[in-house]
Each structure stands twice: as structure tokens, then as C-alpha cells.
Specification:
The complex is a heterodimer of chains A (88) and B (452). Chain A is an alpha+beta fold and 88 residues long. Chain A is built from 3 helices and 4 strands. The N and C termini of chain B lie far apart (52 Å). The chains are: A alpha+beta (88), B alpha/beta (452). Chains A and B meet through strand 2, strand 3, helix 2, strand 4 and helix 3 of A and helix 1, helix 3 and helix 9 of B.
């Protein structure tokens, strides 16, 4: 399963490091990263692929914990929701 | 890959514009629970519902977490109980309502619909007992919803049923007087009732349906309003286009969730109901969409035209996004559940008469309207008759969910819990409809129903 990880908030050092480390620990492979500043907000979008043994709900809760720690909004969503909404 | 702008658009819809799946509703047939012993029938009903729906709430929560989309309600609809209980020896059907309530609590759903009867032409014994049981059933249960179909385009209006439902609504209001006459918020009177509606309080599982089915109701008035903010002053062709595109996106999400829920629960997918269902939260209002089109206040002249455009564009956009569209599918205009409607009713811009006109072009009817507690049963029946006539002639569903709040008068506020919101008591006409309602009999089906 592929998922989209989005990170939004005030920019600070270590965001990408922490997020990618957490993904790595859960066996998640990063396929693509896109990072921009939108309306003064740091915005990072990652396309990731779950490993064979990855439990997606653990990925989500681990990322949420990191988000709380460093004060940014992090979410992971099944990629299908974006495909179904924006592609015919 | 989907680009960042599109991803952010979806996230913004969910975070800021209250986009959500309003309900995953599992329809369950109870036809195989019929028994001459009411007690045994109730046991079978409880057993079947709790067996089929045991994972419904958890599955809804899992999907919500995986896709990052809120799924507000998980609900159950069942075969109209008058059909099931009619075969039993019971003298009243409150025990059936209690069995449904117990099943709802134990599966964790917040409402169960189907304490219902379809009497658009005439009553069976079971229909009569069910309707007589409604006030008590809605008072002693928490999660049971009731609906009664009194008219269809094909069969006309059963005016005896219309009269009885006016009385039933009054009795239900009195029986739940200590709780703002809340029982009436769980009771809907239909013309052209649909068999696959996932929304409460009018959901039931029709006899043409299978053993079990998953129907999904989407929502998102806030998303439509936000999209229209970007085309201020543009012509109506543009407005309709923007609504269609937005409805398409919303419905695609509903379709995805419906298919996923169906797969995980091993229950066939039925339909997506692409209704715009408001909530009392600011930014989740259908009235605000109409105002965004250029009306100073919902209810003023032009409101019916604006709603007609909205309702039609929602259908056109949504219909291509789902393999099966059904239910009510359009815009809802419940007064107490819509911040903009509440505000318009409070300031006097929105009257009962205007709401009636609006129901000619929207997907449902007079919904969640609080009226004075001393409104007569005949007046309520006459309001139902008017709505039923609109539904019958226009070949559409109309409904009446009206609450004569005991002890309250015009201008006072009544507060219900949660999604049901709050509403000002609206005035009704003072002149009597008594002799009209007391005639009884049937209003014949209209000429255009004779299509065969």
C-alpha cells in the first residue's frame, strides 16, 4: 500500500530527519519528497510505500507523536483518497 | 503522483471546510426474523443485527484512520418493523423497538432506523399497531428512529394516515415533553419514501433490498461554499460548474469509502447518497451556500431558485462519481441542523411557507422544524398533507419532521443534542384546517402517475 505523508507547520531543523527516521523504523520506503513554503507555512509531501510487515496504524500514531513533539501537523493517509478525488 | 496542490486541497476540505462522510449505514433485512411469538421474533432480530453489524463501528473507525477522513456516524437500517411484527401475537410493538435499541447500543451505532410502516394506500393490522406504538417506543428508547410513508405518486395520499400522523406527532411530543419533545426529532412522515436512504431519521431497509447492504451518505456544504467564494459575481453557468466539480470530488470520496467498507465487512455495496447534509457548526451550512450566491439572507426572494440550481448541480456532479447513486441525493434543509437556517429563521427572513416552497426543489422536505407546543394535531396533519402533495405531484421524496415543543411558544429557542442542533420556534398559520383533515379517505394519484 502507498500512502501520502504531509507535514505542515513552522520550519525548524530536524523535521525531515525525524519523520524519515520514524518511517525507516517502521519499514516504510520513501518514494518521493516534495517540499515548499506555502503561505509562510512549511509544507512537505512524501509519497511512501509500506513494507511487507508494516502496520499502517502504527505508522500513523508514531508520526502523530513526532508532530506533537516538534509542534508540526503530520498525517499519513492512504494514497487512494487523493487518486479517487482528483483523477477520473 | 498527485501534486502538492491537489493534496493540500483535499486536506483543506477536511480540516477547514468540514468535509466528511456523514454516515455509513448498514441495511439489514429482518424478513427471516418473523415469528408468531413476539418474544422469539425480538430475540431473532437482536441476534441478526448484532451478528451482521458487530464490526461496523470498528470498520468505520479503521477506514477513517487509514484515509484520514472523518466518518461521523455509523448506523443501521432495518426492514419496516410493521412487516415483521405484523405476523406476531403482540398487541403493541414497543418490545420490538426495545430490541432494536438494545442491538444499536451493543453494536455501538448511534441510531437505528426502521421502526416504520408504509401505509401510502391503506393500513394492515401490523401498520396500525406500529403507528399506535410510536409515541411510547420513541419515549422509552434512545436510538430508535421511526418513519411512516403516507403517500406516493403511484397511489396518492392516504389522508387517514395523514390525520393519524398529526395525532401521533402530538402524542410523541407530549410523551417526551420533559426532553424538549425530542421524540419528534426521531420521527419522519414521508411521501415517496426511498428504500435505500442512509440518513436518519428516515432510513429503513426496503423489501426490494438484499439481506444486507452498505449505503454511504456524504456531506460537505462547507466545501461547496468555499469553492463558490472564488467565483464571486460570476454568472450562474459558472456557479453551476463549480458546484458540479466540487460535488464530483466529494462523491468520489464517498464511493471510495463505501467500496472499502463493503469489502472489509463482506457486505454488498448499495449506493452512495450524494446529499449535502449540514450541521450546526459554522461553515457547514447549506443556507450559507445560498447566501454566497448573492442572497442577503436565506429565505428571501430568490432562495428557491438558488436552491434549485444547487440541488441540480450536486446531482449532476455526483452522478458520474459513483457507480450507484441513490437515497435522497440532493441538498438537505433541516432548520435546527444548519447555522444559516437557524439564523435566517431567528431574524424572520425564513418562514414555514418559504421552507415549503424550497422543498419543491430540494431533496427532502420540512425537516427539523420546531413549532409551538399548542399547534393542533389537525394543523400538523395539514402541513403533512401539503408536503405529501408536493412529493406526489413532483414525483419526488418529501418528508415532514416537525416538533411541536410542549410548553414553548413562537420566538423561544429549543436546543436538541449534538448534530440535531437548536432552533427557534416558528409560527404556523392560525386558521383551522380541521374540517379538511377530518374528511378522511384518499387523495387519488395524479394523472401523470398513469404511465403504463
Amino acid at each position: 500500500m502507498k500512502a501520502v505523508v504531509t507535514v505542515m507547520g513552522i520550519d525548524r531543523p530536524g523535521i525531515i530527519a525525524k519523520v524519515s527516521n520514524s518511517l525507516f523504523e517502521n519499514g516504510v520506503n520513501i518514494l518521493d519528497i516534495n517540499q515548499t513554503i506555502m503561505q509562510d507555512i512549511f509544507t512537505m509531501v512524501m509519497l511512501v510505500k509500506m513494507g511487507e510487515k508494516t502496520d499502517f496504524s502504527v505508522v500513523v500514531s508514531d508520526l502523530e507523536k513526532i508532530g506533537e513533539e516538534i509542534g508540526v501537523d503530520i498525517r499519513a493517509q492512504n494514497e487512494e483518497i487523493f487518486n479517487s478525488m482528483h483523477r477520473i | 503522483m498527485i501534486n502538492t496542490r491537489e493534496i493540500m486541497e483535499t486536506i483543506k476540505m477536511i480540516d477547514d471546510q468540514h468535509l466528511d462522510i456523514r454516515t455509513i449505514t448498514m441495511g439489514i433485512s429482518l424478513l427471516d426474523c418473523i415469528d408468531s411469538s413476539a418474544e422469539k421474533a425480538c430475540e431473532k432480530i437482536y441476534e441478526k443485527i448484532t451478528r451482521l453489524a458487530k464490526d461496523l463501528v470498528k470498520t468505520g473507525e479503521d477506514i477513517s484512520r487509514q484515509y484520514g477522513i472523518p466518518i461521523i456516524n455509523k448506523r443501521i437500517s432495518v426492514t419496516p418493523i410493521s412487516l415483521i411484527a405484523g405476523a406476531s401475537d403482540a398487541k403493541d410493538y414497543v418490545c420490538f423497538a426495545k430490541a432494536l435499541d438494545r442491538a444499536a447500543k451493543d453494536t455501538g451505532v448511534n441510531f437505528i432506523g426502521g421502526f416504520s410502516a408504509l401505509v401510502h394506500k391503506d393500513f394492515t393490522k401490523g401498520d396500525r399497531i406500529l403507528i399506535e406504538s410510536i409515541p411510547e417506543a420513541l419515549a422509552v428508547t434512545e436510538r430508535v428512529c421511526s418513519s411512516v410513508g403516507v403517500a406516493t405518486t403511484k397511489s396518492g395520499i392516504n389522508m387517514d394516515a395523514v390525520k393519524i400522523m398529526g395525532e401521533t406527532i402530538k402524542k410523541t411530543a407530549e410523551r417526551t415533553a420533559d426532553n424538549q419533545s425530542f421524540g419528534c426529532a426521531k420521527l419522519v412522515v414521508f411521501s415517496n419514501a426511498v428504500e435505500d436512504n442512509p440518513f436518519m431519521a428516515g432510513a429503513f431497509h426496503g423489501v426490494g433490498e438484499g439481506d444486507a447492504v452498505i449505503n454511504v451518505g456524504v456531506s460537505g456544504p462547507g466545501v461547496v461554499k468555499a469553492a463558490l467564494e472564488k467565483v464571486k459575481g460570476k454568472d450562474f453557468g459558472t456557479v453551476a460548474d463549480v458546484i458540479k466539480k466540487t460535488a464530483f470530488k466529494i462523491t468520489r470520496m464517498g464511493q471510495l469509502v463505501a467500496q472499502e467498507a463493503s469489502r472489509r465487512l463482506g457486505v454488498p455495496f448499495g449506493i452512495v447518497d450524494l446529499s449535502l447534509a449540514p450541521t450546526p457548526e459554522i461553515g457547514d451550512s447549506v443556507a450559507y451556500i445560498l447566501e454566497e450566491m448573492g442572497l442577503e439572507k436565506c429565505g428571501t426572494h430568490g432562495t428557491t431558485a438558488a436552491l434549485a440550481l444547487l440541488n441540480d448541480a450536486v446531482k449532476k456532479g455526483g452522478v458520474m462519481a459513483s457507480s450507484y447513486v441513490g437515497g435522497l441525493s440532493g441538498a438537505f434543509i433541516p432548520v435546527s441542523e444548519d447555522a444559516g437556517m437557524i439564523s435566517a429563521a431567528e431574524c424572520g427572513a425564513l418562514s414555514l411557507d418559504k421552507l415549503e416552497a424550497m422543498t419543491c426543489v430540494c431533496s427532502v422536505g420540512l425537516d427539523m422544524i420546531a413549532v409551538p407546543g399548542d399547534t393542533s394535531a389537525e394543523t400538523i396533519s395539514a402541513i403533512i398533507a401539503d408536503e405529501a402533495a408536493i412529493g406526489m405531484i413532483n414525483q419526488k421524496t418529501t418528508a415532514v419532521r416537525i416538533i411541536p415543543v410542549v410548553g414553548k411558544g413562537v420566538g423561544e429557542m429549543v436546543e436538541f443534542c449534538g448534530l440535531l442542533g437548536y432552533a427557534p420556534i416558528m409560527p404556523v398559520h392560525e386558521y383551522s384546517s380541521c374540517d379538511f383533515i377530518n374528511r378522511g379517505g384518499r387523495i387519488p394519484a395524479p394523472i401523470h402517475s398513469l404511465k403504463n
